[in-house]
């Protein structure tokens, strides 16, 4: 029986780049240092953004870096029935409502929060009866402060109603929203610890509230620094981050460990030895929460 189950959950929107490798290595080392499991989940529900072949490419790259995951990898696209069941549970508990507002309508009648426009509540109390037209499903957010203690970033607080607003769980085009999928999947896999990039810190209060609504346990969170370019943008496919170089794995892995405040001895030149050394010397409390410019 393992008391630590962690995971890495890349989106197959392109090749693994240095930033996603950092999240992979950080979550791997934290799991291994706890003698825990490290699971792999491919987050492929945002189908218009999925790039054919990149899931396989990501798995091959992880293996090339010696980052072997436990159990069989899972795909969000194969779990949509569970998302549907979760939404039905929320419907039965009157925690969600259908919404027919267009993006433009919301922009015109609301103001910007910390992550986009705050939903102005237009459909929340309207009790839409005609559900034949395309509609999204939104979660009713409470006007209260959510607090959690991130193991790297420290105490975090967010008022969901005032800073985020009622957020979408299922889009009008039928696609499942990231926030619902990630919470259902983590609960299904009995994830106890989430280690990921701090670009997702802003989503955590939403996910904790969803866990509460669905009766799921709350995992422990640790948000790693992210790699940014000279203008402060996160390395990503959008900012044209190059794929990690699988021709010089030791050098790339050592650089990644450096980002995680680990300086392995020069003489280590085998991937498995390097990962073992890093696991033995892993100290999450040494990791800075400042983003890293590359
Ligand atoms: Zn609406």
Explain what you see.
It contains nine helices and 14 strands. The protein is α/β, with parallel strands linked by helices. A three-stranded parallel beta sheet has the order 1-2-3. It has a three-stranded antiparallel beta sheet with strand order 4-7-10. Strands 5-6 form a two-stranded antiparallel sheet. Strand 5 (about 110-115) and strand 6 form a beta hairpin. The chain has helices at about 20-35, 55-65, 80-90, 105-110, 160-165, 180-190, 205-215, 250-260, 270-280, and strands at about 5-10, 35-40, 75, 95-100, 110-115, 115, 135-140, 145-150, 155-160, 165-170, 195, 220-225, 225-230, 290-294. The protein starts with a strand and ends with a strand. Bound molecules: zinc ion. Zinc ion binds near residues 100 and 101. Zinc ion (ZN) binds near residues 100, 101, 122 and 123.
